[in-house]
Write a structure and sequence with these properties.
GO terms for molecular function: actin filament binding. Pfam families: Gelsolin. InterPro entries: ADF-H/Gelsolin-like_dom_sf, Gelsolin-like_dom, Gelsolin-like_dom_sf, Villin/Gelsolin. One of its GO terms (biological process) is actin polymerization or depolymerization. This protein has three domains: 130 residues, Severin (3-Layer(aba) Sandwich); 99 residues, Severin; 99 residues, Severin. Helices cover 22% and strands 28% of the residues. It is built from eight helices and 19 strands. It has a ten-stranded mixed beta sheet. A seven-stranded mixed beta sheet has the order 3-7-11-10-12-13-14, with helices on one face. Strands 8-9 form a two-stranded antiparallel ribbon. Strand 5, helix 2 and strand 6 form a beta-alpha-beta unit. The longest helix is centred in the C-terminal third of the chain and has 21 residues. The radius of gyration is 25 Å and the shape is globular.
Length: 396
Amino acid sequence: MPPHDGLVHLKEYDVKDSNVELIGSDLDHKVKYNSAASEPAWNDGQVGVVAGLLVWRIEDFQVIPWPKGKYGQFYDGDSYIVLHSYKVGKDSDSEKLGHEIFFWLGTHTSQDEAGVAAYKTVELDEFLHGKATQYREIQESPSDAFMELFPRVQICSGGVRSGFNHVEEKPKEETLTLLRVFKHAGAKRDSVVVHEVQPTWESLDEDDVFVLDKGDKIFVWQGKKCSPMEKAKAAQVVHDMTIAKHIDVEVISQTEARSRVIVELLGGGGQDSRTTEFRRERPVHQPVQGGPTRKQLWKLSDESGRLSFSVIKEDSSISKSDLDGDDVFLINDGGKAIWVWQGSRASAVEKAAWLKVAQAYVRQLQNTEAQSAYLIPIAKVTEGEESPAFWRTVSA
């Protein structure tokens, strides 16, 4: 018997029927929604129902609720998911909610943690029936929308043991902890960053306020060019630090001769620390330094039968009338943020390709305009469910 006789071959599927073509289809959404419906983190009775903030940390591939008392505090070795649900419209009694989902990636988070955060963000959006705006947040350059969620963002060194790689949380017996307190540029509200930095005199900067905790005493070093608001926020940080332990606090201005005490505690006893200016780039900044400053509008379309990506507007304001519900558009807000807008009638191929196209666009910026372009915040919105932050970029 010939080797193939008697075998029944399965029907060969056309590529249009493949799982790639089904991405974004009703079946695809149903499968993803069923997966999301089994995630305990989304089924606490609050997600998608109650306006406000919810935060989770990725721990050992699981989505674990973050204590409400720690909202705004992040470890640089971790990945987090933040859900902001808000009432739509000016009517305070409105029951309709809008949603923004942020997945925040610490500088030292592991690849597996970042991957889980990204995947679970998409899953959470499915749980919310695809109505959420999705943001990718990088620790060094967060979006204005993210910073406006918290009156204070505190970034600590360390992280949870998770996946293949981990960063241990800092042992409590270490004696020197140095915090840098500064206003975040760009956010509408007075958002302040409290960032743990290396406890060395070279971390000091005359534009900001620094809090040095040496265990038995806390020093506050006020840079000679710091703002009154930064001084006030540093005072709040110190107050929170001393609630649990009653220790001495000394506030010293850089202009005072005694400020040398703090410099020496941080190892600055040599001539270099006496003659140099205290200048250190802020560890969190926005917009991306040296990034593209012009606005651009790009169109992603498969109308011709092949997927194409082309610029259609540059160096001018972008309005709602520039967008077409049949396609997907990418907006570069002058290096401050990259927005991907999905039209309601865009094809499944266009919708599936948005992230790869956005990443390729960022890589092009890195190679041609700014090496730091990878830090530009990326967000995706769908037609009819745009967030307020989007409409601050695109005029209605």
